[in-house]
Amino acid sequence: MGTQIKDVVMKADAPSTLLLDKHADYIAAYGSKKDDYEYTLSEYLRMSGIYWGLTVMDLMGQLSRMSKDEIIEFIKSCQHDCGGISASIGHDPHLLYTLSAVQILSLYDSLSVIDTDKVVEYVKSLQQEDGSFAGDKWGEIDTRFSFCAAATLALLGKLDAINIDKAVEFVLSCMNFDGGFGCRPGSESHAGQIYCCTGFLSITNQLHHVNADLLGWWLCERQLPSGGLNGRPEKLPDVCYSWWVLASLKIIKRIHWIDKNKLRSFILACQDEETGGFADRPGDMVDPFHTLFGIAGLSLLGDEHIKPVNPVFCMPEEVLQRMNVHPEILN
Amino acid sequence: MHGRIKLKTTEEQAEQKQKERLKKLHFYDTTRSACFAKRKAGILDEEGLILSGQLLAANPDFATLWNFRREIFLHLKEEKTPEELQTLFEKELSFLETCLRVNPKSYGTWHHRGWVLDHSPSPDWKVELELCSKFLQFDERNFHCWDYRRLVVQRAEVSPQEELEFTHKLIGTNFSNYSSWHYRSTLLPLVYPDTECRVGRADEEALLTEYELVQNALFTDPNDQSAWFYYRWLLGRADREETVSCLYISREGQRLIVSFSHPVNVLLPKDELILFVDGLPLRVTWKSPHPQLKRSAIWICELPPNTINAACSEHNFKVHWQDGRIQRECILYKGRSESWCRDSATDQQLFRCDLSVEKTTVLQSELNSCTQLQELEPDNKWCALTIILLMRALDPLGYEKEMLQCFQTLKATDPMRTAYFDDLLSKFIIENSILKMEYAESRVVDLSKKNLTNLCHLDQMQLVTHMNLTSNRLKSLPIHLSMMQCLEVLEASDNEIECLEGLVQLPRLQEISLQNNRISKICDLRPLASCPSLILLNLKGNPITEVPDFQSELSELLPSLKDLIV
């Protein structure tokens, strides 16, 4: 016996136009409910939450509505003596939130407010002998952290601080039979991980190691009849996977292998017409994470109401141009 | 937030919910503050475990609290007796199991479990293996659990053979288990290593048994993609060994071209390429055919004047690569204008699969079963695609007609992936054309009217002098076209070409037909200025011909052009 194909049914009355103003209002209001239970409970990822909110606002041309000074003060108070940055005050530093903080400061062109030399030292200290990166001093190894390390350093213009050859070697050791990548050597391929690894190889100029035809096939097979993309075979579609798959396809120059119109309809159907924001699937609860990846996905699909997004850093192209950071795209 | 359905609530319900939330918020706030205060004060005791446990049970992604627990354990290790410690660690494991039942997909929980086991006085990895099997029964695709299992397997020294049997059992219950097929792809080469020591490939006999298992899966549930993905891998081939595949010398052009099996950067010290002429090293400057190709399968050097002497009966050219481990040699005889030495695509079976010739009967029987399956399931795209791959593994030229038919089926049954199928078909057609050209010992390639959407394998065509791409659906002449260093005539009329970025520094290119394409700006033609031999250019039926002053601008750009057809 086997498993039935999982997918969602697209309803005829689902939203089909882009509700930009509502999304901007949703994000602007999100951070103001600081006593809210859900908001408080997500403090362990606050720094990433802020990155998601600010990036989507910037992509919609609404960054000025966010409280820049307050956010910059917050980031400053999250940098630790070791150089690493934590999700929130009182939490421990981690590569995930170090990257988010550096991304936020890049949007604001304010990298100098933190001690960037110490950030570089922190990232460097987490590289292991086999080239991999631990997320923090407790030693969890994951290719997500290889991406965080390379992306952070690239934004700081200090990529040469780490052993790049070894780092590349480790990421390549996580490549699988299907051309995809997993968390660690031997781990199953997963769209989020593929995004991290192709992004890492793009930043380090090593995309020629990717079997683009094989990986591109696996990625375009993530598209389901509803038009949405899943993250692994036999899984449900999700707006965030739409981003990870789409960005990976863009990096390996195969974005035309999916049906763009159908994906666009799926992403639009995940909007909440009442509250603004995007959910993982039509009819679910919205959140800033899926709102960013919905908007960023539409940008990659060529929506002209949104600023062009960079597929590797998930930041506006104009920001990376300004910083002179040019990750490789396969030719 | 994943999979949380938005529900309509009444005012009363909302008020009730709000009250509960406030209560929960208060509990969260006080407990978190208590944990942080203890930690700040350096109090690392069992109460810290209780407090942080209350939060982590509901919110396992609160990473800092796992760190707090680890600090407590490291501290208690100094204080407690081994017996007391053992009890504490056991309690932690059962707490973790409860957490995993509530949230089996939390990175932090699984990582902490591995940490606890690694620091436990007497870890029982066998019990952990059973735990993994149990959690994989709840969800056979939980990649966190699979990854934890691989850690346990390593620590408990479980053999790959046993793990292979485990995946076999899971696949037996449900063929549609991508995680298990994936695991097999890593285990098979360990249990049955390839006799030729190719990394990541399995022994031929093992591959054949594996085909049978997959066939079972395919016939049971032909619409399940997992087994088809795995099958495609089984039918694939090992990576080619890195080598210098061709050495070409042009007397007239005073240049030498080296081709590699893979894109390389010979400007890097580790990939240094050294040229010897008549036994003596010669310092030359290598360049790739296109400035954007930092890595390239083709590298070119101009020979210093007088390197080639017309009176000399022969010149011996030789390149050393990778410290001389890889070499290739070619002789240019007196009176010859060019010379080359290369591996051929037909000899190397470049476009076929790993199985030896003796085993192709097996592939034939695989093809027969897939054809049977297709009769039962005429609309199954996976089956149609696999048939194409099998036919290509067996005899790419012999099955060309059938392959084209199968592609029609594919596009009709899976219109969402039309662009993928178009590009794949383009690739196969180009492969076949290369084979035909080599069998005919010709340097002319006719790819007209093939519905091509994409150009690839251009590094295999570096000796081609005439290429016909008329009447396809090409949107560009990509930068890889610059590898066709011998190209003299290019026919590319009736396409959708907007950009010519690949027509760069092609020393022998004389004629280009680009009738009825979409070239609209003079700057799109700029690459042609770097092709010194160009004398004929046909731009009839392109938007650019409507641009005022276009002809005068063009003659400025291409002063040596003799025939411009508009």
Fraction in helix of chain B:
40-55%
Tally of helical runs of chain A: 14
Based on CA atoms alone, the radius of gyration of chain B comes out at: 33 Å
Low-confidence stretches of chain B: none
Indicate the overall shape of chain B. Answer: elongated
Largest interface: A-B, 66 and 65 residues
Spatial ordering of strands, largest sheet of chain A:
1-2
Mean pLDDT of chain B equals 93
**Tally of DSSP β-strands of chain B:** 15
N-to-C terminal Cα separation of chain A, in Å?
42 Å
What's a quick, concise take on this entry?
The complex is a heterodimer of chains A (331) and B (566). Chain A is mainly alpha-helical.
How would you characterize this protein structure?
The complex is a heterodimer of chains A (331) and B (566). With 331 residues, chain A is mainly alpha-helical. Chain A has helices at residues 20-30, 37-41, 46-59, 68-78, 95-107, 116-125, 143-155, 164-172, 191-203, 212-220, 239-251, 260-269, 288-300, 317-323, and strands spanning 278-279, 286-287, 309-310, 315-316. Chain A is 46% helix and 2% strand. Chain A has a two-stranded antiparallel sheet. In chain A, strands 3-4 form a two-stranded antiparallel sheet. With 566 residues, chain B is of the alpha/beta class. Chain B folds into four domains: 16-158, Alpha Horseshoe (Serine Threonine Protein Phosphatase 5, Tetratricopeptide repeat), CATH 1.25.40.120; 244-332, Immunoglobulin-like, CATH 2.60.40; 360-425; 443-565, Ribonuclease Inhibitor (Leucine-rich repeat, LRR (right-handed beta-alpha superhelix), Alpha-Beta Horseshoe). Chain B is 44% helix and 13% strand. Chain B has helices at 11-40, 46-56, 63-79, 82-102, 107-119, 125-138, 143-155, 160-173, 178-191, 204-220, 225-234, 360-376, 381-394, 400-413, 418-439, 550-557; strands at residues 244-250, 255-264, 273-277, 280-282, 286-287, 296-302, 314-321, 326-333, 338-342, 444-446, 466-468, 489-491, 511-513, 536-538, 563-565. The interface between A and B is large, with 66 and 65 residues. Chain A: Belongs to the protein prenyltransferase subunit beta family. Chain A: Residues 18-315 form the Prenyltransferase alpha-alpha toroid domain.
